[in-house]
Amino acid sequence: MDIQIIKREMERVPWQHLPLHRLSEKTQRALHTNAAIYQRRKK
Known about the structure:
2 helices
């Protein structure tokens, strides 16, 4: 999955609602890290 797609998805829907079981473990870790940063910036 391309990082730009992940960023778009994070902006479009809450990241928790993404189908994480379909993503690789590495991608899940990256997504959680990006989401944590994204949530901190959003506040």
